Amino acid sequence: MITLTNNLEKTWENSLKLIKSEIPSASFQAWIKPAKLKSIDGNNIILTVRNEFNRNLLLQNYYSSLLKALSQTTNISNLNLIIEIDLETTSQDYMPVFSSIEDINIPIQTSPKKQGNNKNSNLNSKFTFETFVVGTHNQFCHAAALAISQDPKKSPYNPFFIYGGVGLGKTHIMHAIGNYVLKNNAKAKILYITTENFLNDLIFHMRQGKMNDFRSHYRGVDLLLIDDIQFIEGKESTQQEFFHTFNALKDQGSQIILTSDRPPKAISKLEPRLCSRFEGGLVADIQPPTFETRLAILFKKAEELPINLFPQIAKKIAESFPENIRSLEGALAKVAAYANFTNETLSIEFVEKILQIKKTNERLIDKIINSVVFEMNLDKDDLVSASKNKNLVQARQACVYLGRYANLSWAEISQGLGGRGNSSLINLHRKTCEELEKKDRTSNLFNLIEKLKDNMK
Ligand code: ADP
Ligand code: MG
Q1: What is the pLDDT of residues 259-284, one digit of tens each?
Q2: CA–CA gap between residue 157 and residue 175 (Å, rounded)
Q3: CA geometry: angle 372, 375, 377, nearest 5 deg
């Protein structure tokens, strides 16, 4: 067993050199470099990392690179690589856990260190890593944010530029970085400001002839968080001033974090030198969350409210608000308010009504009808008429079947089909199911439904 620290360090150093050339430098700095080689025993090698998140990342993304490099430097074939969490350093660490839903981790509450009282930082103490749900849509951004927070002075990502659509968590993660840094160092000088306020402040100081005050204020911080930098678009003098602030901060080793609704290159009328500064650090995007992540976020928020959120209601909300997290939160808050008010268990129908979700479903039945009449070359008015024409009956059968397939209620299907009664819809559905069971490839109805079912996926 090799335990001599020197030997282990040397072996690890050599392995790092090999791995470094293979993977992006940001990932190398954040995830590989902090790992430690704990022991080599026969063909068993143990690496330790700081937390579960880091361990999962190595297992999922860099296991084969690590294996290759370590085999090469140790000359051990059939190497068995084990990655462990270093318990000594993790007790106070932020440690997200992977939930049973693949690729998502809902952070657990960590015992906070003494909270700093940096009153002028403008930080919102509610926006922390503990309340930030990680999914595939924001995983990279979160990983980088966490790496910066853990060691802002030595961060290789300066500036850190986060971009993405409205309500996807840019502001939240920015505050989370600030709060984390503050928690570890109550003396850190942190400043969060929206670009709009930065502009107003600049104009105010210019008018008052107090630019020196302005400069010393912004240039005296360790961590500057500027939100929605796209608003600097076309503002020449602000860009100039910001460029100098930016350089001064970078020169003194302060970390700068920026958010924007688009990448630097897409901000029009942005001075090229500023654009290249923005791109000179790390640029990370946040995408809209997947359905599973939306569900995870809803449960996390429900826990914070608190409200007892039933899975089928969470599912309904997550399905109906796909675009962003802000509207997801708004929907949940509304449901929570009603739940409080009525003091009853809310039904799906009631939730649909208060959130006006029905409209979406009505649109869905219309979409189904439109695609059926299009495929069969029919007239929509004829479809809802009383005619018993064979083609029209088949088209209705397809609509009813696909409507049920899309989990629409009989009432919703009826609305789309001119208010037909439930029993006639149920009959059409039963007839269709019987026909489909035959799996007759020469049947027009069978082929039509198969095709449209595919389109609906
Ligand atoms: P943006 O700045 O991108 O427009 P925000 O950061 O203001 O979006 O986020 C909108 C709302 O959604 C906030 O209340 C925030 O707490 C919440 N939110 C966004 N992303 C997450 C997440 N991953 N986990 C938990 N809440 C989130
Ligand atoms: Mg924002």
Answers
A1: 999 999 999 999 999 999 999 999 99
A2: 17
A3: 100
- Please report where in the chains the tokens 């009383």 appear, as a residue: 386
Residue identifier of the C-alpha nearest atom 25 of ligand 1:
132
Q: Coil, strand, or helix at residue 82?
A: strand
Best residue among 326, 328, 332 to mutate for probing ligand 1's pocket (most ligand atoms within 8 Å of CB) is 326
Which residue, by CA, sits nearest to atom 21 of ligand 1? Answer: 169
How far apart CA 79 and CA 74 sit, in angstroms, is 9
138 lines ligand 1 (CB under 6 A): yes
Is the Cα dihedral 438, 443, 445, 446 positive or negative? positive
Q: What is the pTM of this model?
A: 0.60
Q: pLDDT > 90: what percent of the chain?
A: 58
C-alpha–C-alpha distance, residues 401 and 393, integer Å:
12
120 closest CA partner among 62, 68, 178, 36: 178
**Integer Cα distance of 366 and 416 in angstroms:** 6
Mean pLDDT of 311-332: 90
| 15-48 pLDDT tens trace | 999 998 877 665 677 678 889 999 998 888 999 9
Helix axes 422-437, 390-405, angle to 10 degrees: 90
Q: 3-class DSSP state for residue 308?
A: coil
DSSP secondary-structure letter at 152?
G
Q: What is the CA radius of gyration of the chain?
A: 29
